[in-house]
Amino acid sequence: MVFISHDTRDERIAEELSILVRRATSDKAQVFRSSDRTGREGIDLVRPWFPFILQKIDEASVMICLLTTPSIDRPCSRLLRQGLDA
Known about the structure:
- There is one protein chain.
- By secondary structure, the protein is α/β, with parallel strands linked by helices.
- It has one domain.
- The chain is about 40% helix and about 10% strand.
- The protein has 3 helices and 3 strands, in the order βαβαβα.
- The chain has helices at about 10-25, 50-60, 75-85, and strands at about 1-5, 30, 60-65.
- A 3-stranded parallel sheet has the order 2-1-3, with helices on one face.
- The longest helix has 14 residues, at about 10-25.
């Protein structure tokens, strides 16, 4: 499974990236992105969201972190940058 990590403000970019991944794999790759509103790739609203996201991260064989100008100063992005600098 491909986990696309993104800021909610980048929902449209994440959606396009998801389409690209599915096309590149002939729709064989399962993609998860929390902002999906179709129910195919997102969070099941009847579940607590944080444990569900952690579960999806554990299930992922690939993680794509979408970092954009609006998202770069978010706490999660700062932690990621610190990890990359280590």
